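As a warm-up, study this chain.
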Amino acid sequence: MSEYIDNHDAARSVGVVEKRTFTFGGEGDELVLESGRTLGPVTLAYETCGTLNEDRSNAILICHALTGDAHVAGVHSEDDPKPGWWEIMVGPGKPIDTDKYFVICSNVIGGCMGSTGPVSPDPKTGKPYGTGFPVVTIGDMVRCQRRLVDHLGIGTLQAVIGGSVGGMQVLEWSVRYPDRVRAAVPLATTTKHSAQAIAFNEVARQAIMADPKWNGGDYHETGRPEHGLAVARMVGHITYLSDESMRHKFDRRLQDRHQLSFDFEADFQVESYLRYQGNKFVDRFDANSFLYLTKAADYFNLENQHGDGSLVAAFARASCRYLVVSFTSDWLYPTYQSRDMVKAMKKNGLDVCFCEIEAPWGHDAFLLPNERLNSLIAGFLGRAGEEGGACPAGFTNGGSCDAL
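Now compare it with the structure written out below.
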């Protein structure tokens, strides 16, 4: 996911938020992963905003995308210039209104933003796990989130919301714990990666592992594989944009020059932009975490995990209401994949709203300001607790899926 928000409107912000941690799975109670390996103790970093009501019925869990974190909204101090990654969506009077809802967001396991991952110390050695960290899945991430929700004393979530890999977690929640979710909002996501998506992730992983500084994943005392990680991010970043957005933003314009250099400097603006994004990413992310999280996304396959190969059977386990949203220019998770999941939901008689939003900015469109998305989410959440259809006005059973 990209980083678009550099400043915030203090008047409509949740203000200062605190990163907290929750640890479970100590000795003798380790988490048994889907791979069969065990992991413990497990720490989740999380943040909350809004107020949990008396009957604990207004909680919304937001699941972050691939390289996101628990800092979904607000700032970490009064002079912090950078708000959370979904500041435009979460706050007082915003579509996910913290005057009404208690919002939870946790960093996934396998990550490097405070939750247990390959950079964490292995209790057996005291050194970072590195590639000794077990492979984790989207299902493992969701099971950890459920432990956090239990810890917070919340029985049923009002909604689970997320985009991209966060949307995979939303889908997993809805079929793994159907009695714990009233409404689900998967955005710009899929029930399984296409061969193309796996291919891009593999190129990114190979870029990291080909960096000699990666050293088999054991680099914490010798220097990080910064070049490999930067290239991996550049590859990923291309998939988050679109042909139209890149043409609009860069076209073939040159960077700080009037003619071609005839060497391997960054002649074009798009080259310079990708180098900047890659180097910026190195400052905040761990290379091994990138390997583990992309692998978890590649392994995700809702129909195999919950439907014995049938997507319709997988959603037979679900009972919540859904709002599914795709974007016209998202070629990483194109609309046909959302249509397939909506068809499977409807074959199970589930209450589903679907909308394909016209947006030129590619996969990352769900992170950008969009009045259509705002009104869809606000309307859906407002109606999700009511009797009858949960679709916002004008989108009964999906504004653009009449053929379903």
